[in-house]
Design a protein that fits this description.
Strand order of the largest sheet: 3-4-2-5-6-1-7-8
Structural class: alpha/beta
Oligomer: single chain
Strand content: 25-35%
Distance between the termini: 21 Å
Shape: globular
Radius of gyration: 14 Å
Number of helices: 4
Number of strands: 8
């Protein structure tokens, strides 16, 4: 069973954090699912990921080669990821089942700390996951760089 890492964004947005997290996950040899409720948000991220310096191989869920994708961008209401992810990254309050989290090497929940509803959703996810036995860590960028908080 892996850990759930909660990333509390206060100075940047997910677009600034995702390339680093995705790069670390790929360096660990993990396949990744990036899940969000809004397909348009994922489409925009798909386009941005192709424009980065460096190369982050990825694809949108629903293609002919989902099983081969190291990073698969999947709307929350779509069928399960076809790439057998080791790591799940969620945006915008996308739901995660505790049993699903327990089967992963890593779960990254990324939320906007400037949005009260997003903070409350993340708190509810924290309570649900930790009550189910999933180890969790809280990371904040409030001090200007990412730090694990107690």
């Amino acid at each position: 069973m892996g850990k759930a890492l909660f990333y509390h964004l206060t100075r940047s947005d997910a677009r600034g954090l995702l390339p680093s997290l995705l790069g670390k996950a790929l360096a660990a040899g993990w396949r990744v699912e990036l899940r969000a409720p809004d397909p348009a948000r994922l489409q925009a991220l798909d386009e941005e990921l192709w424009l980065l310096d460096g190369f982050l191989p990825h694809g949108m869920a629903g293609g002919a080669h989902d099983a081969r994708q190291p990073v698969l961008l999947r709307p929350a209401d779509a069928p399960p990821a076809g790439n057998a992810p080791d790591c799940l990254m969620t945006l915008d309050g996308a739901a995660v089942d505790p049993a699903e989290a327990a089967a992963l090497s890593r779960l990254c929940i990324i939320f906007d700390g400037n949005d009260a509803a997003a903070v409350e959703t993340a708190r509810a996810q924290w309570r649900l996951l930790t009550k189910s036995g999933v180890e969790a860590e809280y990371w904040s960028e409030a001090d200007g760089r990412w730090q694990k908080k107690a």
